[in-house]
Specification:
The chain contains 14 helices and 2 strands. With 290 residues, the chain is mostly helical. A hairpin with a 6-residue loop joins strand 1 and strand 2. The protein starts with 6 loop residues before the first helix and ends in an 8-residue tail after the last helix.
Length: 290
């Protein structure tokens, strides 16, 4: 019986050890590394203070990556939220075969980012791609989607939206199905049209879901988009699709600038912390829990 009160801690110990070894320690180590200049092989290190951070803020390419990340996240999040809600409205209707449509619409989410990126790379191929084939039949022209500015960034945004859209749809669909029929009937009696019911009644009631999806999609834009960018454009052309996470990867593994990449990871952590804090601080005021 004496050991009974320690049982929960013993059961949690393996998980805590794994988290400490693979999450907390690498994070602390990256923070410490950001204050040093380290040789490519890691055998020499010199304390550099804030030199790595100063070098980053003086680097025009880093500011370009920050701007591209902002554009990529804002556009992809807005499109995913709006399209996800609208498609969920369609799937909420009782029509023949709607369960099949719901299943098929979720397929892109279960596909890995690598496979998704490879699929869109093939579809956007300037010679054999389906997109250019249809475009040439309609307009007589074709576009080199992945090797021209700004089409490369547009292509990455479209593929990312395609990948994350089912996640938003399934949440909105579950939320719509939980809305009481009496509320909809009352709005019909009051003379509300389809548009008013959609945006002034249903959408505000789904604000907790929207709140959650915005955070999840921002996280996706910051981190999980790496796979699609790496497969489709590798940050090109001319760095037009190089986001902060992909620049970190390039500096760490292509150019062997380990300490600089460590500083970038710290800055990325700070940016995400600020965004999350501000969003929870001001965005949650618009959330209405039932």
């Amino acid at each position: 019986m004496k050991w009974g009160k320690y049982t929960p801690y013993l059961l949690l110990a393996p998980t805590l050890i794994i988290i400490a070894l693979f999450i907390y320690w690498p994070a602390i180590n990256s923070f410490l590394m950001s204050f040093y200049k380290i040789s490519p092989f890691g055998d020499k290190r010199i304390f550099a203070g804030l030199d790595n951070y100063i070098k980053l803020f003086e680097d025009e390419a880093y500011w370009d990556a920050l701007k591209i990340t902002f554009i990529y996240i804002v556009l992809s999040v807005i499109i995913v939220i709006i399209l996800g809600y609208l498609i969920a409205q369609l799937l909420d209707n009782k029509v023949f075969g709607v369960r099949i449509y719901r299943t098929l619409i979720f397929v892109p989410y279960v596909i890995s980012f690598t496979i998704g990126g490879a699929l869109w790379t093939f579809m956007l191929n300037p010679v054999a791609g389906h997109v250019n084939y249809i475009l040439s039949r309609i307009t007589g022209e074709s576009i080199n989607w992945l090797n021209q500015v700004p089409y490369a960034l547009i292509s990455v945004i479209v593929s990312s939206v395609w990948k994350m859209l089912p996640f938003s749809i399934i949440f909105y669909l579950a939320g719509l199905q939980s809305i009481s029929e009496s509320i909809i009937e009352s709005s019909l009696i009051d003379g509300a049209n389809v548009w008013q019911r959609m945006w002034k009644i249903k959408f505000p009631m789904l604000s907790p879901i929207t709140f959650y999806l915005v955070i999840m999609n921002i996280t996706h834009g910051m981190f999980e988009s790496f796979g699609i960018i790496d497969i489709m454009t590798r940050g090109g052309p001319l760095g037009s699709t190089t986001t902060l996470i992909y620049k970190l990867y390039q500096d760490a593994f292509f150019f062997q600038k380990t300490s600089l990449a460590a500083a970038e990871s710290v800055i990325l952590f700070i940016i995400m912390s600020i965004i999350t804090f501000l969003y929870f601080r001001f965005g949650e005021k618009r959330v209405h829990y039932q």
